[in-house]
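Sample entry (384 residues):
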Amino acid sequence: MESNYDYILAGSGLAGLSLLNALLRDDILQHKKILVVDNVKKDLNDKTWCFWEKQAGPFEHLVAKEWKTLQFFSPTVSKTFKMKEYSYKMIQSGDFYNHVIDHAAQFSNVTFLIANILSIEESGDEVFVQTDHGRFLADFIFNSTGLFYPQMSEANTLLQHFMGWFIKVEEKVFDSNVGTLMDFTLSQEYGTTFMYVLPFSDNEALVEYTLFSERVLDQSAYEKELRDYIENKLGLDNYQIEHREFGVIPMTMAKFPRSIGSQHRIINIGTAGGHTKASSGYTFQFVQSQVNRILNLLRLGKSPLVRLSLREKMFQWYDMVLLDVLLQKKVEGEDLFSSLFEANDPELVLAFLANESGFWEEFKIRDSVPFWPFFSSGIKQLLP
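Predicted structure, serialized as tokens:
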């Protein structure tokens, strides 16, 4: 195997394969020598990505289901809303992996290597990935592994952790056109806790138990809550679990480095590059945005280091403020989201969470949450 490449993608998850897909669909960059390194072959349906967007995206053909009508429930708020601009979409990771890898198989300039990544380093004029199968150099390395994660602790990080069951029942009980975005009518003893229910046919649905808290639970606790919700809230006694998923996403105030080394030739992407939204855990669309900007820079022969715009820094500040409020328990998560969805057009809340809202819309969002907790946390995040 050759040891020199134009680009090395360290990690073949969402970020790595999104970048690979974009490179191979670009007339200028698709002939570059690319090495993709991961310690596993991506062939399992291990994740479900949900997101909202206004138009058809680059992976529209992979969308397993989309919803134009969503619901929000809490002890004080009940809303069903039909979206005018956004569609809420679901992509299965297995479909995504297979699509990108099958397309990449057509290119002789792309090499996949299953190996353990021991280090990613800059030494003099070289940047390289050291694996248990050898050392590989590149002009640029795009890292989506956890090698350079910042220090996270219970003081600066909430974990978004979730267990989901894809269930199937004999009878037709679901309205496949209506998804439940958040249902907070659950015990909040472990922290911010909600269920979401996404039916993709009249007898099949994803039911997912989600929490924002400092620590994960025992597996039995997730299972108990899912069983209770399905049986008592959905009223289903006889169901089959077709597929299970579990995940943990950091929602953190820690700063993820966007590049490593003085030459900015080791670029962190995806969660490793700070492109998981700190206040919500959403990743899919933020990764696609970063990939597009990397592509544009590479096409121009520039460094692919994406620098934050002023607007992005503003949204990052919003994220830090919200996280500080939740971490300091100034406002309970259930009360916070209830306030947002009660006082605002839900589509505005989604726009805000997608970093797509405007200044006056953000003023309305700020005006709908408790003033003093957010004011004190906002000032705190402005101080050095």
